[in-house]
Amino acid sequence: MLDLFEVITTSGVVLWSKSYAPVKSSVINSLISDVFIEERNQPGSDGKWFKKDSYTLKWTLAADVGLVFVAVYQSLLHLTWIDELLDQVKKLFVALYGEKIKASAGTKIQCHFDKYFEASLRSLERKVGGATTARPADASIEDPNSDGNWGGFSDGDELSSPPPMPGVNTTGASDLLHQTLETPYPTEKSYPLIEVTPSTTSSPVSPATMAQALLQASGRRPGRPRRNRKSAGPSSASSAHASSGEERSPARLSNRAKRGKEMRIWGEDGIAADAGDDRKLDYSAGISTDDEQDALRPKPEAIDQNTWGTRTSKGDFLLKDLDYEIDDILKQANKADNTDETNKKGPGGLASGLVGGAMGYLRNFVGGKTLSREDTDKAISGVMTHLLEKNVAREAAVQICDSVQTSLIGQKTGSFQSIESLVKLAMEDALRKILTPTTSLDLLREIEQVREAEGRPYVISVVGVNGVGKSTNLSKICFFLLQNKLKVLIAACDTFRSGAVEQLRVHARNLKELSEREGGVVELYEKGYGKDAANIAKDAVAYAGTHAFDVVLIDTAGRRHNDQRLMSSLEKFAKFANPDKILMVGEALVGSDSVQQARNFNTAFGKERKLDGFIISKCDTVGDMVGTLISMVFATGIPVVFLGVGQNYTDLRTLNVKWAVGLLMS
Amino acid sequence: MATLPTFEILGFPVSLPILIISLLAVVIIPIILGKLLTSGSKSGPSSVILLAGPRDAGKTSLLLYLQEKTLIPTQTSTTPATVKLSPSALSPADSEDDGSSTKPFHLRDTPGHPKLRSTAINTIIQPTESCIGVIYILDSAVLSTQARITDTAGYLYELLLAIQKRYAVLSETNTSTEPIPLLIACNKNDLFTALPSTKISSLLQTELSRMKETKRKGLLNAGAGENDDEDLDLVLGDEASDQITWEGLKEFGVEISVQSGSVKSGTVDGWKSWMATCLDA
């Protein structure tokens, strides 16, 4: 069952939406901010879907007109036709309203899209239904494919008994379309159909279990199926409108008629569910606004004349027109796509090809060229090489370049703007977007706040691979805090490496001497070697609480990020010490390993805890090759808090995004 | 007097000066044309009122409300949108336009997501844009949590700093630079948890002062001092004190007023009249 379908402009205006069940707007908002803005795909989704609460969201973009098409449905359901629906609706919508949208500069336009959407939804549902009844073998082959497509679909246990029951799944899908989930009625009726399908391996599906499965899948008002069934009776009389699809063409093929029966049952129950009255209203609205729509709609004349006479008659004829019209628009859109491709590959005539080529060549310099993937390939690969030279990890560089390229397709170059400069600008934007933090990184402000509001010490801990400079950076942070007259406790939780505690003791002594005049107080909390680090950390925090320290800095043992044994102790550490900030120290020197390091440390603290920031150390040793910044932030979406830029206590800096982007693009 | 050398081009005799002049013309005219074209396209709309603020505050809703006079559902924006409005859109719904100013103005909506805030900042800093006013929209119902206050004040800090920079640049060249009016529009005051505008005003001033203090105490930016980029060590307002007040910021090029309202319940008349005074100024 589709819960919500929205057409949104990139400027945030909902141009058209169809809601079958109330969905909080924060669901789509989080899709936009996570996937579109922060470009963080959920693990395993490969940018194809997005899950939020109990919903799965799928989307498609029309970059040239700046539109986003989003479909929202319950994650438990396995709707194979969503992609097709999105694609079809996109083509229709762009064909109908593309010009208007371009003219309106991203704000509201009037669109009466309801009937088109309903019609394409119905036609898709017909297709899916046809696939199960007419050629069940095909459907059973299709299903595993789509399973692979939707890699993360694992929670629908009730439905996914292996091998997937094609009849059940797909009829379920078309059922859901009409919101018939609450009632066992349709499944009883469609049960013979399922039995007919020869490939159904688990054929003894009792209607009761089916209904139960669907109930669970729906997740809505499971306690009241009986009442709904009762209400289905009277309202079925009023559903003649929806089922008029069969009445209008009795002379159709016999298998068509057979499917027609199955259709009618579902249509009826769709009415029986909550959307019933709206749907009827929609039809009448469609009839009344049809004439004004005709004026606005870019439509071939031949079809128009054919249908003109029947247009004023009853609704069944109107439905037919709409289907034809939609087919027509889709055909034209497909044709346009095809001609575009053929134009690129082989020009029809030599002369026109030459002229086109010359114009294209000229546009390379003069500007005003609409970019395609091929146009940008060269410039993008140039920028990618540049990024790799700046020590950006290959994985990150490839993904960034991909997203930049996708964002550029369909754009026009400005006057006298080369593709290269456009790509460079877009890349600068992308890098700036990646590095810009989404939260405030004002450490002093946060410390002050925790101290005032909660009266407890602020706990910071550093983690990282061996030898990246955890203790050194910890001391630098400590020095910075001491300068601000804070009382700092350093906890030596590296109970593993020889000399680690002594090293911190030296730091603490130096810092004490340095900060005596400033008014800061620093103390070392140590328990020697061999003890459990998490317990020491916990004790240190408790000690700091009783002795009125402002900040606790916890040093941890270095660990290799792919050593499961060492990494697993971090979860306990995070739970026991419960630091306000867990900062990971990463070397600027590290190459392609940076992405994996960042990811592994980010996931090491358990489900609820993530890293809070990075300290990129040894930035002075790499010159302008600061690609590690990008790799680590890109892999995790976690901001860079500090940069280590030298050997002294004072060589700690905050990140300046403009500076970093400048270095990377230089 | 020596005769000038002449050339024969396609059978026509051409003297040297003419040849040079025509060659120069061939070279220069396209350059001039190009300059003209690009400069023409670069200069932005005549008078822009900027809509900025944290996300989910109601920027796009306000824009659409002023344009369409109805509530239209919105989602998070990812790109800015500019809309041309006539001043009659600002007059109260029932009264007729008095025709005091008929010049249309532009309302620019910017995305509020932290990663996309540079759009609004750039609009202010670019001197080609004639920005006649800034509306900072915030959600007055969520300011009870410290995290949201920090976020709201943080963006405001950046905006004010940008306005201050713009003012400094403009007043160097122009002797009589008017301060930019900035309206802090406390949206969603129809909600139960909404704070009154006076409370929000004082909350923001305190938070901004604290931010200024910690920024002064904080670490240097990476790259500071390497190149002479004076943007980095610019502080908001008076360098002598950490206290930030709306009155104190007036001499740094921004005139702040705070007003409550709600797009949802249609109580935006105060904001409209504020915009109308922006246009008249």
From TrEMBL, chain A:
InterPro entries: AAA+_ATPase (IPR003593), Longin-like_dom_sf (IPR011012), P-loop_NTPase (IPR027417), Sig_recog_particle_rcpt_asu_N (IPR007222), Signal_recog_particl_SRP54_hlx (IPR013822), SRP/SRP_N (IPR036225), SRP54_GTPase_dom (IPR000897), SRP54_N_sf (IPR042101). The chain crosses the membrane at residues 625-645. The keyword GTP-binding applies. Its main location: endoplasmic reticulum. Residues 221-230 have a biased composition (Basic residues). It is a peripheral membrane protein. GO terms for cellular component: signal recognition particle receptor complex. Belongs to the GTP-binding SRP family. PANTHER family: SIGNAL RECOGNITION PARTICLE RECEPTOR SUBUNIT ALPHA. Heterodimer of an alpha and a beta chain. This is Signal recognition particle receptor subunit alpha homolog.
From TrEMBL, chain B:
SUPFAM superfamilies: P-loop containing nucleoside triphosphate hydrolases (SSF52540). Its main location: endoplasmic reticulum. The chain crosses the membrane at residues 12-33. GO terms for molecular function: GTP binding. This is Signal recognition particle receptor subunit beta. Signal peptide: none annotated. It is found in: Endoplasmic reticulum membrane. Keywords: Endoplasmic reticulum, GTP-binding, Membrane, Nucleotide-binding, Receptor, Transmembrane, Transmembrane helix. It holds the Pfam family SRPRB. The keyword rRNA-binding does not apply. The lineage of its organism: Eukaryota, Fungi, Dikarya, Ascomycota, Pezizomycotina. It is a single-pass membrane protein. InterPro entries: P-loop_NTPase, SRP_receptor_beta_su. Residues 77-112 are annotated as: Disordered. The keyword Membrane applies.
